Amino acid sequence: MTRKSKSHKNRRTKPTKYVQLVILVIFITAVGYVMNMVGCESVKTVGTTKYNGELVSQHIQDLDMARTAKGRSSQIIRHKGYTLSYNNEWRLANWVGYELTRDETDGSVERTDWFDEDPMVKGVKVRHADYTHSGFDRGHMAPAADMKWDKQAMVESFYMSNICPQVHALNAGLWNTLENRVRTWARRDSAIVVVCGPIVPREYMTIGENRVAVPEYFYKAIVSPYSTSPQGVAFIMPNEDIDEPLYKYAVTIDSVETVTGIDFFYNLPDSLENYIEQNINLKSWQL
Prior knowledge:
Elements: E1 8-9, H1 19-38, H2 40-44, E2 66-67, E3 75-78, E4 83-87, E5 92-101, E6 137-140, H3 151-157, E7 163-166, H4 168-171, H5 174-189, E8 191-199, E9 205-207, E10 212-213, E11 217-224, E12 231-238, E13 250-251, H6 253-260, E14 263-264, H7 270-278
Antiparallel strand pairs: 1-9, 2-14, 3-4, 4-5, 5-8, 6-7, 8-11, 9-10, 11-12, 12-13
Helix pairs in contact: 1-6
């Protein structure tokens, strides 16, 4: 992918290979190899055993929270519709988490399309102009379409802390497809919890006067905690034009934790958390 000449190279880098990126590449390559060798239907049978522990009987507080990797810049910010961990070094969120219920998918609030500084960010505040003429979309992490249940939530979804530089073909393509699928799952299961964000390598390019980091990949971890058979799934997508089926990018939540160093859904009961994060049943997610 061609990068814009106005982008600046971050010089705080090391000349060695970076473990996280290597693990990510190896993992995605291995998953693709297995799918091609055994076929999609065989892969769909992995993790079909239903969780037989105690089912969640009531709402779990702060299920959309995650633990950011140690040593990484992090400011926890709570908005009406989502929570995020803001990384002032990257000028991006480490992660953005929110719950989407069946009723919330029926909201009628219109998009504002007004990108603005996040007033709660401490330190450098990213501006709309940082993305102008960069060649990248202002890509939502918590989608505006998931916030149409409340006017304030909609306005806050356009805060720049919820935005990442995203290749247009991804933002308007498979990433958008996944966002639509999340809403389908929320209507089916009564509630879905999502944590998503960028994967930024040690050596990264930046855009804009405020030097916003450009991610190499994006992840989205999803749990359906209140359904009859609680389950989870995650996705890792490269920040580029991709046209393969959605299931090609499906991975376990555990694998995303390995790559990012982030601990997702830690407020779940331990046995349920372990089961959800280690298993993936593509058929039950209609993939």
